[in-house]
Inverse folding.
């Protein structure tokens, strides 16, 4: 990676705004997977050791541009406090005179965590006024939020244009690893896609098919393909705007694109719902597909076993609920057991792998799902593109 990093900045005594991706799963006020927080610690520790005063900002979930207690950063602050071993102060805003005044009183040797950036409507619009307000909080900017680098938002792009900026250590590690392994993968290269951000991910399938030898599709997105094939999908999640594209992709991809042969269905996506396995094409009306079935897991496993490189983003089903977790578990175990170089990316995929205690069996855990997908496609990530290049001394 030829970008300036935090190591190139003279941070001593300075206030440094750090964009982190603390978009972690939260249940009943507790962070249920802290991978993204732990992975940001090296940058935070480096800044603290060099006498900087870090001010952290992140989004959490997808609130609609206004404060929403469900997405407040307090549970994240609590977990960060336990992990960092230095004081963590959490503020209830992310910009404005009150925040500025609070930062003027910042105690030495700790970090300040700002409130969810998506409580501000300007964040996702990359509004220059919000970026200006954020830039007023610090003297330097560091982006360590690889998981959000594919978003051109005020905290990832706008503010980077207004302050001296650099990449954080996690950002550097992610880009260096993904560059070395996925841009020139050892073949066969098998990509596995799942999850629920269907409209985000359907768009990348075409370019992924250009890079991978086989693409295994599970999660919610397979139902758009089934519907495009003319199958009944009951109440499963479907992206109707993509049906034509799905049809075209199915025609063009041939055997490269592998869909489930059976699915787990239930009447509702909830704990205790009665689940059963049905062949694809036999999803009853009033039921929804919430996981891939056992025959699919076996079929996917044989592709994974033959692979030399595996890239996985998105759980195969609603793994948070026991009855719909077997597909994700089966695929996770197959990837863990394979001899392939394996990269797992995405907040929920990583949560699924760590829930099973399989992190150490993967070659690399990427903190970004959508971001790693776009990177593998060969796209430039806006949050990276905006950072200044590193010019070696003597050049
Ligand atoms: N068939 C399905 N129907 C509805 N939701 C699903 C289905 N399969 C997986 N999901 C959900 O997808 C979510 C993760 O999706 P996504 O955010 O795209 O993955 P990642 O964070 O790994 O990139 C999980 O919360 C999971 O419950
Ligand atoms: O969780 C994230 O992406 P991922 O689910 O693709 O890994 C990032 O924090 C980006 O979140 P967003 O997709 O709401 O912009």
């Amino acid at each position: 990676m030829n970008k300036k990093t935090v190591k190139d900045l003279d941070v001593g005594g300075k206030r440094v705004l750090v964009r982190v991706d603390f978009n972690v799963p939260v249940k009943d006020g507790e962070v249920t997977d802290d991978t993204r927080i732990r992975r940001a610690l090296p940058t935070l520790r480096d800044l603290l050791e060099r006498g900087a005063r870090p001010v952290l900002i992140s989004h959490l979930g997808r609130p609609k541009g206004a404060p929403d207690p469900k997405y407040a950063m307090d549970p994240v602050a609590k977990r960060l406090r336990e992990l960092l071993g230095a004081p963590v102060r959490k503020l209830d805003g992310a910009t404005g005179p009150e925040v500025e005044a609070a930062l003027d009183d910042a105690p030495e040797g700790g970090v300040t965590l700002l409130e969810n950036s998506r409580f501000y409507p300007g964040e996702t619009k990359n509004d220059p006024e919000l970026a200006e307000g954020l830039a007023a909080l610090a003297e330097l900017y560091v982006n360590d939020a690889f998981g959000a680098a594919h978003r051109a938002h005020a905290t990832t792009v706008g503010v980077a244009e207004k302050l001296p900026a650099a990449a954080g250590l996690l950002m550097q590690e992610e880009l260096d690893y993904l560059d070395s392994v996925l841009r020139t993968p050892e073949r066969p290269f098998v990509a596995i896609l799942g999850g629920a951000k269907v409209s985000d991910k359907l768009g990348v399938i075409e370019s992924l098919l250009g890079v991978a030898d086989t693409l295994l599709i599970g999660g919610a997105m397979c139902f758009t393909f089934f519907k495009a094939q003319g199958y009944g999908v009951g109440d499963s999640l479907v992206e109707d705007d993509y049906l034509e594209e799905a049809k075209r992709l199915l025609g063009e991809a041939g055997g490269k694109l592998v869909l489930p042969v059976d699915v787990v269905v239930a009447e509702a996506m909830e704990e205790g719902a009665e689940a059963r396995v049905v062949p694809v094409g036999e999803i009853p009306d009033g039921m929804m597909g919430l996981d891939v079935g056992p025959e699919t897991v076996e079929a996917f496993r044989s592709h994974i076993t033959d692979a030399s490189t595996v890239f996985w983003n998105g759980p195969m089903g609603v793994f948070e609920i026991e009855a719909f977790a077997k597909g994700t578990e089966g695929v996770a175990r197959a990837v863990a057991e394979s001899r392939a170089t394996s990269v797992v990316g995405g907040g929920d995929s990583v949560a699924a792998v760590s829930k099973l205690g399989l992190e150490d069996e993967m070659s690399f855990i990427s903190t970004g799902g959508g971001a790693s997908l776009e990177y593998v496609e060969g796209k430039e990530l806006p949050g990276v593109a905006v950072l200044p290049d590193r010019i070696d001394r003597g050049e």
